[in-house]
Design a protein that fits this description.
heterodimer, A: 14 helices, globular, B: 635 residues, alpha/beta, 6-stranded mixed beta sheet, 25 strands
């Protein structure tokens, strides 16, 4: 803000100055704070476990970030408009089953389309009921979560599908300059989403809608349409996650996405978004995803009992958001 | 000494120095006005007094001993409490439970029987006019009643000092009057009241002493209100003289008929608030929509703007039939709206000022991208016109600015798209007087450039000051359209009187016609014109020369001779065909409420004019008084 004020020409170069700039940077920008935290976490983990900084483990981390990352992207859009989507995890399960069943009869491309269509349909249902039926998103998506989980069992007969075409594995097996294809895909959709949120009418409409829906409506923004679209994208991103999940483990489980909604919401919130809507960034979410994945990975490497991992992750989420609140000076809406 | 005193109070929020040496001293048994332009620090000081905000520096003394409040609960325990603009009541609890809510925080067992008796006593103390029942759910009450519950809550705590922060803003004039009566009673019982308001008339009506803040500093403390004129007070508030804030309309020629009609509304209805509204606005004209709260003014312009559905009636824009189903369609058709509720309908709090300014641009735009860059030049010009500092403003958060600044930005949002028709709903609500005057100047300027403007305002003086013509709404019906130089506040109030409360008057007029024939009417004669508020009767041969909502020259009517001969009974008109009896009506407190007249198609046969006059005056002085007290303009 003070960039235009005159630089102090005569002031002697002080030793403390560079340290102050880092601190100011940390104080002003949540994304930079998070990079700092991630680096710190990586440092601690590489000291604590010799396996952490191995190529194999890091590739594993990248792989894991793809699934959570895809779901979190859709969740970001929904949370930005002040909504919430609890159905994403179970939609990963049911759309995965749709994919598996479709591949028994059709080629890869057709099966992908069917899978994405199923996710879009579920998201559209969520969006229409929430937007036009004016029912709380929590309730509607909770219902959809139950429906999705149930349909996944019905369609699969409660069995995993493992007779998958070999071509499917290429998505996560192939690499470009040493990095798996699926991770490149993740970066690509995040890049598109970044452009969408910062430089398009639709993106800004989502922010305005989350911040003050009535003002957005009065100003002539297409509030209802974009609200529905946010939920559709969230449903589609569940399908995308289902495809990559199937490609990675070459088997589809009806409960494959169980609990993903919590990881996704946690990643979005750790990334600085407000559950009241109107605040958050896609870069923050991506970094939030990395935080989540690194911590899970670290707990595994440190041989923390799976029973205790939930407690650890839960505590870390709460502490992270609390710390963020304190650091940003609690400038929440009045 | 028994008093509440704050001295040399400093408070900063981030980079903003809200208070820099503010002070106030309140005694029991007085109403103390805390005034200042927007951003003067009135709200911050109120919140410090009531313990919601802690000062950075300064002293608070209560009855001579220093105190520190660390929370509003702390202040409450010291007998200080605040009646807020946004009511802090629990809508799902009863009136009694709300009043006694703070008792839940006290130790010991709750004894509802005792509390109920206390509640009854409090209601009795405040007067029962408000019709409050202890067992009603607060959610079912009107805004005025809720405010009363807040006051009761303050009294239940035995508060000695009560802060009223803009208490009349959400109230109808009648409710405002009732509040003042209650405030007077509280003062008589030895409470000290702090009254924060923008409305000068109210300050002069209710307060004893005034403390003026400007930019967080104390300008003058403890001035007796009697020692001040309105002009002097404004000077203290803004630090300079404001010459004629409406940009005097005497120099303004009427808008010629050659200007094209931009908006024509015919019999528009959008139930329940809008029932039958007709008016038109020409290019370059400012049309005021006057009326009481609940008359359907905001709803009318929201219907035109596509925020509500019209069920019948037509709207023509530039001569073409026009129906907006969404605000987007309205904006694209060249209509701008400055909505009534700035915080609720206009500001996007998480957006920078720049994006807030560009919001309507975004709404109107087709395509995928933002196109912000295309507006950079226009924004710079607008900010210059609005006297807003571009550099400091654009990347900052909206909420860090005063109400006046925010309103200017919202105005700029509407003007950015160069609409042909601008609809403004209460454009100066909660805006300081300096900004008000620049908003008026801007309105005149854009009208001068050919924009058509429709302004809704509850402030009758404002609407007379800024409009070329005024359409008066009452209970969802447009009753008349008048040139603004013909009317004053009292006549507007008579036209605006709610039809429901004018019903008894109407019934009496109808009864008169049923018994005597001819036409009966209620009028005011002023400045050589007859203003007709109501007329009953179908006998065209007894037409007095005006209809309800009309305002013809006296000479064009048949009642001039009757007016010239008061107490002469029925008087024939100049050509002797129509005979007229006029009866002046006075309210209980001696205010003139105009004249009721009866015109017959021939000489009266067997009517005792004197007895009839007396009975009309007797019956009517009451209901008209009642109807007009509702409007609050005759208090």
């Amino acid at each position: 803000m003070n960039a235009d004020s005159l630089p102090p020409i005569a002031s002697p170069p002080s030793v403390a100055k560079p340290r102050r700039t880092i601190l100011t940077l940390l104080a002003t920008n949540i994304e930079i704070r998070m990079v700092f935290v991630i680096v710190l976490v990586m440092l601690v983990l590489s000291l604590a476990s010799p396996y952490f900084f191995t190529v194999k483990n890091l590739l594993n981390v990248l792989d894991q970030s793809v699934i959570v990352g895809m779901v979190s992207l859709g969740e970001t859009l929904v949370i930005l408009i002040g909504g919430i989507d609890l159905s994403v995890g179970s939609l990963v399960g049911v759309t995965g089953i749709v994919l598996g069943l479709a591949m028994r009869h059709f080629g890869l491309a057709e099966s992908f389309v069917l899978c994405l269509g199923a996710g879009a349909l579920a998201g559209l249902t969520n969006g229409l009921i929430i937007t036009y039926g004016r029912i709380a998103p929590f309730v509607v998506t909770l219902g959809m979560m139950s429906i999705g989980a149930s349909l996944a069992y019905v369609l699969s007969g409660a069995n995993s599908i493992s007779d998958l075409p070999p071509g499917l594995g290429a998505l996560s097996a192939d690499t470009i300059i040493g990095i798996p294809l699926d991770f490149w895909c993740l970066l690509a959709v995040y890049a598109v989403c970044y452009w969408f949120l910062t430089s398009t009418k639709g993106g800004r409409t989502l922010y305005a809608l989350g911040s003050n829906p009535e003002a957005a409506r009065v100003a002539g923004l297409r509030v209802a349409a974009w609200s529905v679209i946010a939920y559709v994208v969230s449903g589609v991103m569940s399908s995308v996650a289902a495809i990559f999940l199937a490609s990675r483990i070459l088997s589809i489980d009806p409960i494959g996405g169980q609990g993903l909604e919590l990881d996704a919401i946690a990643a979005v919130v750790i990334g600085g978004a407000s559950l009241f809507g109107g605040r958050g960034s896609i870069i923050g979410t991506l970094l939030g995803v990395f935080v989540m994945v690194f911590i899970r990975n670290g707990l595994n490497l440190l041989n923390v009992s799976p029973y205790w991992q939930g407690t650890a992750i839960g505590s870390i989420i709460i502490v992270a958001v609390l710390a963020e609140r304190l650091l940003s000076g609690a400038r929440r809406r009045a | 000494m028994s008093s509440l005193e704050l001295r040399d109070i400093w408070k900063a929020f981030g980079a903003t120095q809200a208070l820099a040496g503010a002070a106030i001293e309140v005694r029991p048994g007085e109403v103390h006005a805390l005034v200042g332009a927007n951003g003067a620090g009135k709200s911050t000081l109120s919140r410090i007094i009531s313990g919601q905000v802690r000062p950075d520096r300064g002293s608070i003394t209560l009855d001579g001993s220093p105190v520190r409040f660390s929370s509003s609960r702390d202040a409450i325990l010291h007998g200080i409490c605040m009646v807020t603009q946004e009511t802090s009541l629990a809508p799902d609890l009863s009136v009694l439970e709300n009043i006694m809510l703070p008792h839940l925080a006290l130790p010991g067992r709750l004894r509802w029987r005792v509390l109920r008796a206390q509640g009854q006593a409090l209601i009795a103390e405040l007067g029962r006019e408000a019709g409050l029942d202890l067992d009603t759910l607060v959610g079912d009450l009107s805004i005025g009643q809720r405010q009363l519950v807040e006051i009761l809550k303050a009294l239940a705590l035995d508060s000695r000092f009560i802060i009223f922060d803009e208490p009349t803003a959400p109230l109808s004039p009648h409710e405002g009057e009732r509040l003042f009566a209650i405030m007077r009673r509280l003062v008589a019982r030895g409470r000290g009241l702090i009254f924060v308001s923008h409305r000068l008339e109210e300050i002069f009506t209710i307060t004893d002493r005034v403390t003026v803040l400007r930019e967080g500093r104390l300008v003058e403390g403890n001035l007796p209100i009697g020692s001040l004129s309105q002009g002097a007070l404004v000077r203290l508030m803004v630090g300079r003289e404001l010459q004629d804030i409406y940009g005097r309309r005497t120099a303004r020629p009427p808008v010629p008929d050659s200007h094209p009609v931009v908006l024509r509304v015919r019999n528009l209805a959008s139930p329940p608030m809008v029932r039958d509204v007709s008016f038109e606005v020409r290019a370059g004209e400012v049309l005021g929509l006057a009326g009481l709260v609940g008359a359907g003014r905001s709803e009318t312009i929201e219907t035109i703007f596509g925020l509500r559905r019209a069920t019948s009636g037509t709207v023509e824009l530039n001569g073409q039939p026009f129906t907006a189903r969404t605000s987007r369609e309205a904006i694209r058709a060249g209509i701008g709206l400055i909505p009534e509720d700035r915080r609720g309908q206009a500001i996007v709090p998480d957006f920078s000022v720049r994006e807030n300014l560009l919001l309507a641009h975004l709404g109107a735009r087709g395509g995928v991208g933002l196109g912000y860059a295309s507006r950079t030049g226009a924004i710079r010009d607008l900010l210059a016109v609005l006297d807003l500092p571009e550099r400091r403003l654009l990347d900052a958060n909206m909420l860090t600015f005063s109400g006046g600044m925010q309103q200017k930005v919202i105005l700029a949002r509407g003007l950015l798209l160069s609409p042909r028709l601008l609809l403004l709903d209460e454009p100066t609500r909660g805006v300081d007087i300096a900004t008000r005057s620049s908003i008026y100047a801007l309105l005149r300027r854009v009208a001068g450039e050919g924009m058509a403007c429709v302004v809704v305002s509850s402030d009758f003086e404002e609407i007379i000051g800024i409009s070329d013509r005024i359409t008066v709404l009452s209970d969802g019906v447009s009753v008349t359209t008048l040139p603004s130089q013909l009317v004053d506040v009292e006549k507007l109030a008579m036209f605006a009187a709610p039809r429901t409360s004018a019903e008894k008057t109407h019934t009496v007029l109808a009864d008169l016609v049923a018994r005597q024939g001819g036409m009966a009417y209620w009028i005011v004669v002023d400045g050589g014109r007859v203003f007709c508020f109501d007329r009953v009767g179908t006998d065209a041969s007894a037409d007095p020369g005006f209809a309800a909502g009309g305002f013809p020259l006296l000479a064009e009517t048949v009642i001039a001779p009757a007016l010239a001969n008061p107490s002469a009974g029925f008087v024939p008109c100049t050509n002797g065909t129509r005979w007229t009896l006029l009866v002046p009506i006075f309210g209980q407190r001696g205010h003139s409420f105009g004249t009721v007249g009866l015109t017959l198609a021939g000489p009266p046969a067997g009517i005792d004019a004197a007895a009839l006059s007396a009975s009309i005056a007797g019956i009517l002085s009451d209901p008209i008084d009642h109807a007009l007290t509702e409007t609050g303009q005759f208090a």
